[in-house]
């Protein structure tokens, strides 16, 4: 598979991720914290995650409990993160040359933040997202170098 094709797939996935984050942030803005806590409790008590005393169930209960405290942060983070990603994806899809270094820096900052948050929150998902963002940064930089070479050759 060519680097360009892999790059297109990666930015498409990043765009979908940004759209989901934006929608998720808007939903969190509307849905009361008690509904989210109640949902998490229902999932755990109905054994949908396996053992109600298991690691995954405890993690979900803890996250739902902390949600009320960090709700504003979560909404602002998701909406801002989603909008930034969608803007970067649009610029990369249009091959706006200045967007490539900006995207690499912004996504690298997201990686640092995701790792920082994962260490402090013991999140299971954040290291996975950080690793995906590292792969996308590498693809963005490779595509940027290729576009620069193509423009010099033209």
Automatic annotation (TrEMBL):
Signal peptide: none
Pfam families: DUF2127
Organism superkingdom: Bacteria
Keyword Flavoprotein: no
Transmembrane segments: 20-44, 74-92, 99-116, 122-141
InterPro entries, sorted: DUF2127 (IPR021125)
The entry's keywords: Membrane, Transmembrane, Transmembrane helix
Protein's recorded name: DUF2127 domain-containing protein
Species whose genome carries this gene: Amycolatopsis keratiniphila subsp. keratiniphila
């Amino acid at each position: 598979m060519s680097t360009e094709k892999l790059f297109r797939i990666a930015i498409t996935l990043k765009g979908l991720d940004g759209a989901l984050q934006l929608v998720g942030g808007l939903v969190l803005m509307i849905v009361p914290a008690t509904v989210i806590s109640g949902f998490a409790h229902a999932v755990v008590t109905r054994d949908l995650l396996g053992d109600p005393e298991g690691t995954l169930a405890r993690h979900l209960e803890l996250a739902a409990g902390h949600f009320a405290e960090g709700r504003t942060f979560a909404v602002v983070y998701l909406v801002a993160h989603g909008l930034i990603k969608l803007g970067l994806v649009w610029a990369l899809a249009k091959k706006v040359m200045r967007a490539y270094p900006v995207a690499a820096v912004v996504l690298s900052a997201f990686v640092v933040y995701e790792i920082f948050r994962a260490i402090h929150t013991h999140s299971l998902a954040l290291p996975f997202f950080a690793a995906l963002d590292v792969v996308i940064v590498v693809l963005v930089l490779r595509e940027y170098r290729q576009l620069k070479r193509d423009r010099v050759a033209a």
